[in-house]
Design brief:
10 helices, globular, 4-stranded antiparallel sheet, alpha+beta, 291 residues, 43% helix, single chain, 6-stranded antiparallel sheet
């Protein structure tokens, strides 16, 4: 078995750090056989195996140890402050997600109304959670796309991931309730009017929550209960509707329409127009002019 010192480990293939995502760092690694000792005082760490076939791994956290096979989707959780030692004898491909511990406590207190002493994650080896795995893969896809969907999408996924972690892998899990309620009509109109007026800009979840004087976590769940979709999904719907309207009613270039509607590029708009109409933007415009 080959053991590489920590300083010979390969850097991440992809990392969200250059993109400036808030409260979360997402990184994809592919390491040769070796070992690593890892610890963060300020972040909780979630490691998800990306290996497409079983491989043998040894992990140690505190007085707990696991040695055995891991395969794609297996999750390990190292709470902030926990010394995490890992050793592997074959190439190891994995996703590492770091969530600020202060942010997790904020979610626990504001969104789930649980106390700080029950807001810490528990150490785990080789657990399976399809919801967390799915969210992690969406974050990885967004990372590889260069943050194409915008900050609102990443913030929404970060919030959902943090809530799932608290519900399933913390001392607080049995105290979490699901009585969410809804936004009032006046509040809902205030938010949707703001979205409509700012579609060309990078709308953030924190911006929407501030309008109503709420935490972003509380706002996001009330919004979905009120309108049936997440804030990100609603913003995307409105951008698509405006783009379709401009394609039919104006002669503006497709690139300019993309910018006016808050899409990051011509191709970004094209992707969503094709997905929702089955046509490229230019074909949609021609059909619209015939109607």
């Amino acid at each position: 078995m080959v053991h590489l010192p920590n300083n010979e480990l390969h850097p991440p293939i992809y990392s969200s750090e250059p993109q400036g995502w808030k409260n979360i760092v997402v990184e994809e690694f592919c390491q040769p056989p070796g070992q690593e000792t890892y610890q963060s005082q300020t972040e909780h760490t979630i490691c998800i195996s990306l290996n497409n076939r079983p491989s043998r791994l040894s992990q140690v956290m505190g007085d707990r140890r696991y040695t055995g096979l891991v395969t794609q989707g297996d999750i390990a959780i190292a709470p902030a402050g926990e010394l995490f030692f890992c050793q592997w004898s074959e190439q190891d491909k994995y996703l590492r997600i770091r969530i600020a511990s202060q942010f997790l406590q904020q979610v626990a207190q504001e969104a789930l109304e649980i106390s700080r002493d029950r807001a810490e994650l528990l150490s785990e080896f080789r657990v399976r959670n399809p919801q967390i795995e799915a969210i992690a893969m969406m974050l990885l896809t967004e990372l590889k796309n260069g943050g194409l969907a915008g900050q609102l999408y990443v913030e929404s996924l970060t919030n959902i991931l943090t809530v799932h972690l608290l519900r399933n892998y913390s001392a607080a899990q049995r105290y979490v309730t699901s009585d969410y309620g809804k936004l009032g009509d006046r509040q809902l109109l205030q938010v949707t009017d703001y979205i409509n007026d700012h579609l060309a800009q990078d709308i953030k979840l924190s911006d929407l929550a501030k309008l109503l004087g709420m935490s972003q976590f509380h706002f996001a769940r009330l919004f979905k209960q009120s309108i049936g979709v997440t804030p990100h999904q609603y913003v995307l719907q409105q951008r698509l509707e405006r783009a379709k309207h401009l394609l039919k009613q104006t002669e503006l270039p497709v690139m300019e329409i993309a910018m006016l509607c808050g899409f990051s590029s011509h191709s970004h708009l094209g992707k969503w127009i094709r997905q929702h109409t089955g046509m490229a933007p230019k074909d949609y415009r021609i059909k619209g002019n015939r109607v």
